[in-house]
Write a structure and sequence with these properties.
The protein is α+β, with helices and mostly antiparallel strands and 126 residues long. It folds into two domains: 75 residues, P-loop containing nucleotide triphosphate hydrolases (Rossmann fold, 3-Layer(aba) Sandwich), CATH 3.40.50; 47 residues, no CATH class. The protein is built from four helices and four strands; from the N terminus they run E-E-H-E-E-H-H-H. The longest helix has 11 residues. The protein starts with a strand and ends in a 10-residue tail after the last helix.
Length: 126
C-alpha cells in the first residue's frame, strides 16, 4: 500500500501540492490526470522519495519514508521510480534502468527478472 498523508510540497514560494492525501492499495491500478503544472510529477517524486515534502509524509507498506535508514532501505528494495528521463546514461530502455536500480539496492536477479521479464544474462551488467 502507498499512502500520502497531508503532503505539502512547494518550490520556493510556488505551492505545488497542498495537504494532499492519497491511498493506493496493493494491486490497485491508479491513473492520475490533471493539467500541466498541477503537481502530478511532484507527487510521484514525493512518493518515490526523490523529493522530501515540507509537510506530511509517505508510507509504503506501513514503512514511513525517511523515518530511518533501515525503513528507507526496505522501501527501496520494494519499489523503483521510473522517470521519463532515467538519470543513468548507461540505460537505453526502462527495463535496463529498473535492473540497474534493483542491483544498486541489492535486489536478487531472479526477483528482478520476475518484474522486468527476461533472463539476467540477456541484460548488460550494471
Amino acid at each position: 500500500m502507498i499512502r500520502l498523508v497531508d503532503v505539502t510540497q512547494h518550490y520556493g514560494v510556488r505551492p505545488v501540492l497542498r495537504h494532499a492525501s492519497l491511498e493506493v492499495a496493493t494491486g490497485e491500478l491508479v491513473s492520475v490526470l490533471a493539467p500541466n503544472g498541477a503537481g502530478k510529477t511532484t507527487m510521484l517524486g514525493v512518493m518515490a522519495g526523490v523529493l522530501e515534502p515540507q509537510q506530511g509524509h509517505v508510507q509504503i507498506d506501513g514503512l514511513r519514508r525517511r523515518a530511518s535508514e533501515e525503513d528507507e532501505a526496505a522501501i527501496r528494495r520494494r519499489l523503483a521510480f521510473l522517470p521519463d528521463r532515467p538519470w543513468s546514461p548507461k540505460n537505453r530502455t526502462g527495463r535496463e534502468f529498473l535492473v540497474q536500480v534493483g542491483r544498486l539496492y541489492e535486489v536478487d536477479d531472479d526477483r528482478l527478472m520476475d518484474h522486468v521479464g527476461g533472463h539476467p544474462f540477456a541484460l548488460r551488467s550494471a
